[in-house]
């Protein structure tokens, strides 16, 4: 099956970029209302509507939520692309809808989505509120969970560009986790069911992004939603959309989320626990914090009248300006950077750094400077 062609065909073109908020998704939800059951199920702190999408009539029940963190829209885009596929007249879509019932909350944190923040309007990380249940959005999610009684949960997120896959000089374009249910991070039947589905998704994705699929850190924290639902004996899968080469708006990464979602529903009714399932899962490279957006190597500086050759790195900060997310490159680390990679790297060939009359970079300052007074870098990128 050509998954990538399907991802491209069913991409929802009205959802693009990094800033995805409630007003953008409502018209698209309405366009699906002839086939899906769509209703408002609650309100956020700031009284923005939170919607539920129910799809299919099958026996196996899947609960899916996205944009629990408002500034993580890639999986929401991929989920809407998957909605678009399920809304089509495809025989495969019809089969999925007859085998499964999907209950989806595409934007759990509409306040955070509007403000482009991780937290909700009360500055609470919803993914650390599963036990305390202090926020209306988490109360709503747990109410839906308790009423629906899903067979599986899918927890959809974005991860930062700092993550690569262990042993490879490649970004973690998508990462998965079957969350732990205890501090020892042992594997019981519930967790193994999630592992089995992850392995199937990895098999499909490996054809398109080999060695760019990671396994997220499984440190146990029952306050995290995935860990909490796993302790309730519901197999739960964490999806983390990551960086693809030159794809900062994540229009390519969303396609791999679509592929993961679609492949998870293919021929996966038995969830048989066999010996090699865990072995294959543990072969997925662990996420490794090994990337910066920019690395500048072999840079001459003058510090206290002493010339030195250094390396330094810059990382984008995402800033919402006039309803658009701008990427601002900020100098973030000065060291040998021996075990780090840059999504973009420059060899400055021992030429002199200059910025605002200084000949050394400063952490926390925008990455705009010259090399040898002739090569200009603006917002991290080489211009001349």
Please outline what is shown here.
By secondary structure, this protein is α/β, with parallel strands linked by helices. 27% of the residues lie in helices and 30% in strands. The strands form three sheets. Strands 1-2-4-3-5-9-7-8 form an eight-stranded mixed β-sheet, sandwiched between helices. A seven-stranded mixed β-sheet has the order 13-12-11-14-15-16-17, with no helix packed on it. A two-stranded antiparallel ribbon has the order 6-10.
What does this protein structure show overall?
- The protein is α/β, with parallel strands linked by helices and 384 residues long.
- The protein folds into 2 domains: 3-289, 3-Layer(aba) Sandwich (Aminopeptidase), CATH 3.40.630; 292-382, Urease, subunit C, domain 1, CATH 2.30.40.10.
- It contains 10 helices and 17 strands.
- It has helices spanning 3-9, 22-31, 74-86, 91-99, 110-115, 136-148, 189-206, 225-231, 253-264, 275-282; strands spanning 37-43, 49-55, 60-65, 100-105, 152-158, 163-165, 174-177, 213-215, 236-241, 287-289, 291-303, 306-321, 324-335, 341-354, 369-371, 375-378, 381-382.
- The strands form 3 sheets. Strands 1-2-4-3-5-9-7-8 form an 8-stranded mixed beta sheet, with helices on both faces. The chain has a 7-stranded mixed beta sheet with strand order 13-12-11-14-15-16-17, with no helix packed on it.
- Helix 1 packs across helix 9 (253-264), helix 3 (74-86) crosses helix 9 (253-264) and helix 7 packs across helix 9 (253-264).
- The longest helix is centred in the middle third of the chain and has 18 residues, at 189-206.
């Amino acid at each position: 099956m050509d998954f990538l062609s399907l991802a491209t065909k069913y991409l929802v073109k009205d959802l693009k970029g990094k800033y995805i908020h409630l007003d953008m998704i409502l018209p698209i939800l309405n366009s699906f209302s002839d086939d899906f059951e769509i209703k408002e199920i609650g309100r956020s702190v700031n009284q923005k509507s939170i919607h539920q999408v129910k799809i299919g009539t099958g026996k196996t029940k899947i609960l899916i939520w996205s944009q629990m963190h408002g500034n993580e829209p890639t999986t929401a885009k991929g989920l809407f692309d998957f909605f678009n596929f399920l809304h089509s007249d495809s025989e495969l879509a019809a089969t999925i809808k007859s085998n499964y019932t999907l209950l989806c909350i595409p934007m759990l944190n509409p306040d955070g989505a509007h403000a482009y923040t991780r937290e909700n309007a009360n500055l609470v990380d919803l993914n650390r509120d599963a036990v305390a249940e202090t926020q209306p959005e988490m109360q709503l999610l747990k109410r839906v969970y308790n009423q629906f009684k899903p067979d599986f949960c899918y927890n959809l997120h974005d991860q930062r560009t700092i993550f690569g896959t262990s042993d490879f000089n490649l970004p973690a374009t998508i990462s998965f986790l079957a969350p732990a249910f205890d501090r020892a991070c042992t594997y019981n039947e519930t967790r193994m069911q999630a592992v089995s589905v992850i392995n199937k998704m990895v098999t499909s994705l490996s054809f398109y992004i080999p060695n760019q699929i990671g396994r997220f850190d499984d440190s146990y924290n029952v306050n995290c939603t995935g860990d909490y639902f796993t302790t309730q004996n519901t197999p739960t899968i964490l999806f983390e959309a990551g960086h693809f080469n030159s794809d900062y708006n994540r229009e390519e990464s969303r396609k791999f989320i679509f592929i993961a979602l679609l492949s998870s529903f293919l021929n996966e009714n038995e969830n048989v626990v066999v010996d090699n399932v865990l072995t294959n899962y543990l072969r997925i490279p662990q996420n490794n914090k090994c990337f910066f957006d920019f690395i500048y190597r072999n840079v001459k500086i003058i510090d206290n009248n002493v010339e030195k050759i250094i390396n330094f790195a810059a990382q984008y900060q995402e800033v919402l300006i006039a309803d658009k997310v701008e990427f601002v490159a900020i100098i973030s680390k000065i060291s040998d950077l021996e075990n780090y990679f840059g999504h973009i790297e420059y060899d400055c060939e021992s030429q002199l750094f200059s910025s605002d009359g200084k000949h050394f970079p400063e952490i926390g300052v925008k990455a705009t400077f010259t090399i040898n007074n002739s090569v200009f870098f603006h917002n991290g990128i080489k211009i001349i």
